[in-house]
Amino acid sequence: MAAAALEVDRVRKSYGKRRAVDDMTFDIRAGELFGFVGSNGAGKTTTMRIILGVLTPDAGEVRWQGRPVDFAARRRFGYMPEERGLYPRMKVAEHLRYLGELHGMSRAAARAAADRWIERLEVSSYASEEVQNLSLGNQQRVQLAAALVHEPKALVLDEPFSGLDPVAVDVMRDVLAERAAAGVPVIFSSHQLALVERVCHRVGIVGSGRLIACGTVAELSESAERRLLVDAPGAPETGVHWAAGLAGVEVVSREGSRTRLRLAKGADDQQVLHAALATGPVATFVSERPPLTELYRDLVTRDEAEGATVVGAGAGAGAGAGAGGGR
Ligand SMILES: Nc1ncnc2c1ncn2[C@@H]1O[C@H](COP(=O)(O)OP(=O)(O)OP(=O)(O)O)[C@@H](O)[C@H]1O
């Protein structure tokens, strides 16, 4: 297990009376793709701006490799802001070279890096165009190149996938996975939960400024209601279902002899098996993991109903929370 590279420790930020980020604690490990998800206004952008030092927290701190993040460390981070931040009238290649030099690269190194990323992100045909003449999706590819050009040690990306076509999504995903594989901790926010589930090692779910859950999707699903898929070919396909009336068991869907069931916490799956066997042989009896989209809905709804409950590995833990979260 890689050690925490970037730690967000009990960070708070208010705008006037509104608490935008409240006691936010999590870490991102070297080589990890960390998905940062949550409803609109939950506090993701504010947290990422604090990581980058664009905003100062009211309390708490951000650490890089165990030390409070300072200007020198931040200079080595790559950032893709939500509002994007390219100069519209600058030419693509020129812009990337300029940003490389701004981050301390030599002219030759900045030129080589700009050329490399232009090619990797498939915007070569626009290298001499002004940024403003590119489509929004292509501007976004350039924006990613801008975050990468100085070979950052950590990547913080605010909704990098929004508005991209499917091919561009694949390019973006591959580049982020490559960077992570090279040891770079990568955090990105997104509302595309299926994508987050596919690409991220761990996920942090934010609700009302707090981290309400954090871990691998498998870990997050441990706190959710269990699902079973049961195929009982001998059971009648119409009429009262064989699982109806079992304590804590809900029939979610029914397709021929196959049934999907939801089990409340503490419900006994053996009683389900007995009931299924009572109809004849059982062809399938497997636990299913709900997709992140459903886990997210359950966790956010539960959090809103219960208040400050924190679930999952590392969520809300104290400084240096490196607990749990295997891949
Ligand atoms: N400059 C600001 N002044 C006042 N309130 C702000 C400011 N920036 C953010 N907020 C408030 O802070 C809260 C968190 O906003 P933030 O942009 O961090 O959310 P988010 O999770 O990134 O949302 P989204 O998914 O919509 O981008 C919101 O209630 C927002 O209205």
TrEMBL record:
InterPro entries: AAA+_ATPase (IPR003593), ABC_transporter-like_ATP-bd (IPR003439), ABC_transporter-like_CS (IPR017871), DrrA1/2-like_C (IPR025302), P-loop_NTPase (IPR027417). The keyword Transport applies. Residues 6-233 form the ABC transporter domain. Keywords: ATP-binding, Nucleotide-binding, Transport. The keyword ATP-binding applies. One of its GO terms (molecular function) is ATP binding. PANTHER family: ABC TRANSPORTER, ATP-BINDING PROTEIN (PTHR43335:SF4). Belongs to the ABC transporter superfamily. This is ATP-binding cassette domain-containing protein. It comes from Streptomyces niveus. The lineage of its organism: Bacteria, Bacillati, Actinomycetota, Actinomycetes, Kitasatosporales.
